[in-house]
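Handout, section B. The chain below has 310 residues.
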Amino acid sequence: MNFVKMYSEVFKFKKDVIAFSTAESYDFLNLKSVLPKNAIYLPKNSAFYLPKWSSDTHFHDIFIFLSGSFVIWGSIEKSQDFLKTIIRNKLTKIEINSYNKSTKTSISVQKDLIIIGNDFNHDKLLNLETPSSDNIIMAQLSFAQSLARSSKLAVLEDELESYLNDVKTIPDSLALGKIPLKRREIIQKTGILLRFRQHFNLNPENFLDLPEFYWENVKLEECYLKTLEALDIDLRLNIVNTKLNYATELQFTLREVLSENTAHRLELIITWLIFIERNYEVIHPFSLHLKHFEKQLIYIYVSGMKKYIM
């Protein structure tokens, strides 16, 4: 089992946690302008902490990460309210390049155990132990940041899976000697894949590096890393890289086929041009003689008409 040292007080009254990724990033100034005055900015984490956000008669702790995710503690049902009233409010644009489909990662609590995901799995249990520090907010933050990273990764996983579904019939077509896509479509697919690689490798969430914030706190670092481990982040990253390598190889093959096809067409065009040029050299002297004969006929005709008139 995966064990994480965590504060039991964190989940004492908050039985559910949910992370949403809704955009590539959030606009800092616009987000700050719509948040309540009690929101606290955490510069080392590029996040806002919103304690006791009110929705009806319930209060929820929320972390909003500028990388395009937010994590709400206390009620999964109210996460849509926060999304509608704050993140996607009608007056101020918060999201930069919003996702068509938001992804989420959820956690629930049963007694003293944190259950990651919807299905109970003994291999993914996080044990809650007696706190060694009273900094509960920082403990919440470490969980929230790991969940936000998982949710952000889920967006890229869905995007890559959708791309692979679009190109899954290409190998069969190539096996039959057919080029399944036109030049423009191949260029579009290449652009989509390059954009995905850009988002994956240059993502502000930076899946591979440990945030600097945890360098100063070993216990929070352990909590953060163990939660990532329970969420199978490393395994999922390896799977994404494997699929990405396949997609890149397929795209390279398509470009090679396209280049060969273009080169073949150019060879045909050059061959026809040479053929026309050589035939023109043969026909050209005869055409000059024909034009001279034509002029003579016209001259004779005109001369004859003049004599007839006179």
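Note. Residues 297 and 303 are 10 Å apart (CA to CA). Compare this with the example in section A.
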